[in-house]
Design goal:
The protein contains five helices and three strands. The protein is mostly helical. It is extended, with a radius of gyration of 20 Å. It has a three-stranded antiparallel sheet with strand order 1-3-2, with no helix packed on it. 57% of the residues lie in helices and 12% in strands.
Length: 152
Amino acid sequence: MNFLKRITSILITLLGVATVVFFLFSVLPGDPARMMLDQNENQEELQLIQQKYGFDQPIFIQYLNYLNDLSPISAHPQQHDFNGLSTQKYTYMSILNVGDRSVVLKWPYLRESYQRSGVKVSQVIGNTLPNTAILAIAALLIATSFGLYFGV
């Protein structure tokens, strides 16, 4: 019983963190589509970017798509729209097909980087994680050394 309570509290915490992150980035000033285009923007390209990444949809639909991408079990339409199943976006195994939708088991999809166009966020994290770990361990060792020295 205690195990179920812990799992439930972990899931609620993860949902809360995902919600805060989504809405923080949604209310911050600046349009991600404009950031992707830099100075070379025109109206047609801006609309294409907004359609490609789903920025043209209502905020609630964007939020549901975001949660659907983060969830390991999710439902997707068969067609190749913003939220459709694509082997370029998802590594998945189909569980159930119902009409034009599929329920799949997949790795969470963190989407594409706004700064590095066409590069998945998971690739950016994977490339920077080793250096970040080295920096964190070095900082921990230095802080522990100074803390012990000055504490004694």
